UniProtKB/TrEMBL annotation:
Membrane topology: Multi-pass membrane protein
InterPro entries associated with the record: EmrE-like, UPF0060
Signal peptide annotation: none
Entry keywords, A to Z: Cell membrane, Membrane, Transmembrane, Transmembrane helix
Transmembrane segments: 7-26, 32-52, 59-76, 88-105
Protein name: Uncharacterized protein
Cited PANTHER family: UPF0060 MEMBRANE PROTEIN YNFA
GO CC field: plasma membrane
Compartments in which it is found: Cell membrane
Length: 108
């Protein structure tokens, strides 16, 4: 279970970083060369999703919960904005959903 959560967290960081670099270029007028590491980060994101042993649709659905939590951590650490209590409650609900999707019992 910890391996799965760690892989999801790494996947989320790769996606958020890739999108953030594109955002820096488009919204902040930063250098176009940022698109190269952005593309590499987004390619790593797609590759990391393939490392999960579960069906792709299930992985994508569960990944959304982890992404929400990691995005709030990014908001706090990178953007310097403290997430609100309701932000954290929402993330907890989405992580609960992720846990149910990934680790709940399945018919055999």
């Amino acid at each position: 279970m910890l391996k799965t959560l760690g892989l999801f967290a790494t996947t989320a960081v790769a996606e958020i970083l890739g999108c953030y670099l594109v955002w820096l270029w488009l919204a902040q007028g930063r250098a176009i060369w940022l698109l190269l590491p952005a593309a590499l980060s987004l390619a790593a994101f797609a590759w990391l999703l393939t490392l999960h042993p579960s069906a792709a649709g299930r992985v994508y659905a569960a990944y959304g919960g982890v992404y929400i939590g990691m995005a709030l951590v990014w908001l706090w650490l990178v953007d310097g904005i403290q997430p609100s209590t309701t932000d954290w409650v929402g993330a907890a609900v989405s992580l609960l959903g992720m846990g149910i999707i990934m680790f709940g019992p399945r018919p055999t």
